[in-house]
C-alpha cells in the first residue's frame, strides 16, 4: 500500500472501486465469505430479529443486511459519504447493475431457490430509508432526526474507520448505542490492530484497536456481550489492509 495517498477525507472514497473489489469478483467473495457466514449464523442461530434495523456506515454495499432481511420488518441503510448514499439510492432504484456473487453465496447458505435478483428485491422491499450518519456526533442521524430507535444495529468496518484513537472509538460506540432500543442487539464487526485500508488510490487511516479495547468500549456503553470471535486476514484481503485480523461482537443493550 506504500504508493497510495494517505487520507482521512471520505470524499476520496470511490464506491465503484469498492464494489468492484469487495463484491464483484471471485477474490471479493473470498474476502467477504467469513462475514457472510457469520451474519447468516448469527441471525439464524441466535434468534436475533425485531421490527427496525439500522446498518451503520453501509458504504456502497448491502452485503451486511442480506441475512438480516429475513429477520426484521424494516431496514435503514446509512453512511457518512454522500457518494455512498447516492450509490445506495441507485441500488434501491435498480439504476446500477448489481454484482450477484455475494447474494448468490448468501442464497446458497440459506438453501433457498431464489435468483440473485429475487433475493435482492426481497432486501429492497424492506428498505425504508437511506440516511446520512456521522458516528462521531452525539446525534449520529442529525439533531433533526425524530424517526425513532432501532431493535437491531449492524456496524461493519465503520467505527474504527471513523476515528483515530480509542477514546474516539468508545464515544462512537456510545453514540451508536443511543439509537438502539433497550434490549436491542448490536452486531459490531471491525479490524483488529490495523490502521489502513485501501479504497482506490487512497489508504484510509483509522484507529488500531485490540480485543480488550473493543470489549471494554462495549461494556462501558452498557452492553452484555453474547458473542466475541476473531478471524484471520485472508491472503486476498491482506493486499488492501494492514490489519492483523477481524472481530465480530454480538451484544445486547
Ligand atoms: C470500510 S467502509 C465499510 C463499508 C461497509 N459497511 C462494509 O462492511 O464493507 C467504511 C465506511 O464507513 C463510513 N464512515 C466513515 N466515517 C464515518 C462516520 N464518521 N460516520 C459514519 N460512517 C462513516 C465510510 O463512508 C465508509 O462507507
From TrEMBL:
<keyword id="KW-0808">Transferase</keyword>
<keyword id="KW-0949">S-adenosyl-L-methionine</keyword>
<dbReference type="InterPro" id="IPR000940">
    <property type="entry name" value="NNMT_TEMT_trans"/>
</dbReference>
<dbReference type="GO" id="GO:0008170">
    <property type="term" value="F:N-methyltransferase activity"/>
</dbReference>
<dbReference type="InterPro" id="IPR029063">
    <property type="entry name" value="SAM-dependent_MTases_sf"/>
</dbReference>
<dbReference type="GO" id="GO:0032259">
    <property type="term" value="P:methylation"/>
</dbReference>
<comment type="similarity">
    <text>Belongs to the class I-like SAM-binding methyltransferase superfamily. NNMT/PNMT/TEMT family.</text>
</comment>
<dbReference type="GO" id="GO:0005829">
    <property type="term" value="C:cytosol"/>
</dbReference>
<protein>
    <submittedName>
        <fullName>Nicotinamide N-methyltransferase</fullName>
    </submittedName>
</protein>
<dbReference type="Pfam" id="PF01234">
    <property type="entry name" value="NNMT_PNMT_TEMT"/>
</dbReference>
<keyword id="KW-0489">Methyltransferase</keyword>
Amino acid at each position: 500500500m506504500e504508493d497510495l495517498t494517505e487520507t482521512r477525507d471520505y470524499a476520496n472514497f470511490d464506491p465503484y472501486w469498492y464494489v468492484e473489489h469487495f463484491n464483484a469478483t471471485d477474490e471479493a467473495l473470498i474476502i467477504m465469505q467469513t462475514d457472510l457466514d457469520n451474519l447468516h449464523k448469527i441471525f439464524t442461530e441466535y434468534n436475533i430479529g425485531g421490527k427496525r434495523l439500522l446498518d451503520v456506515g453501509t458504504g456502497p454495499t448491502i452485503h451486511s443486511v442480506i441475512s438480516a432481511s429475513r429477520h426484521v420488518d424494516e431496514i435503514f441503510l446509512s453512511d457518512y459519504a454522500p457518494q455512498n448514499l447516492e450509490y445506495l439510492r441507485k441500488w434501491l432504484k435498480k439504476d446500477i447493475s448489481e454484482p450477484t456473487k455475494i447474494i448468490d453465496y448468501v442464497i446458497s447458505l440459506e438453501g433457498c431457490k431464489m435468483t440473485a435478483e429475487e433475493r435482492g428485491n426481497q432486501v429492497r422491499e424492506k428498505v425504508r430509508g437511506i440516511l446520512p450518519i456521522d458516528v462521531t456526533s452525539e446525534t449520529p442521524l442529525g439533531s433533526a432526526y425524530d424517526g425513532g430507535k432501532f431493535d437491531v444495529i449492524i456496524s461493519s468496518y465503520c467505527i474504527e474507520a471513523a476515528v483515530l484513537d480509542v477514546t474516539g472509538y468508545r464515544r462512537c460506540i456510545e453514540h451508536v448505542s443511543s439509537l438502539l432500543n433497550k434490549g436491542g442487539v448490536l452486531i459490531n464487526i471491525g479490524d483488529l490492530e490495523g490502521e489502513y485500508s485501501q479504497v482506490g488510490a487512497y489508504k484510509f487511516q483509522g484507529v488500531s484497536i485490540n480485543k480488550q479495547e473493543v470489549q471494554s468500549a462495549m461494556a462501558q456503553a452498557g452492553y452484555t456481550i453474547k458473542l466475541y470471535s476473531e478471524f484471520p486476514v485472508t491472503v486476498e484481503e491482506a493486499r488492501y489492509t494492514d490489519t492483523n485480523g477481524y472481530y465480530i461482537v454480538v451484544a445486547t443493550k
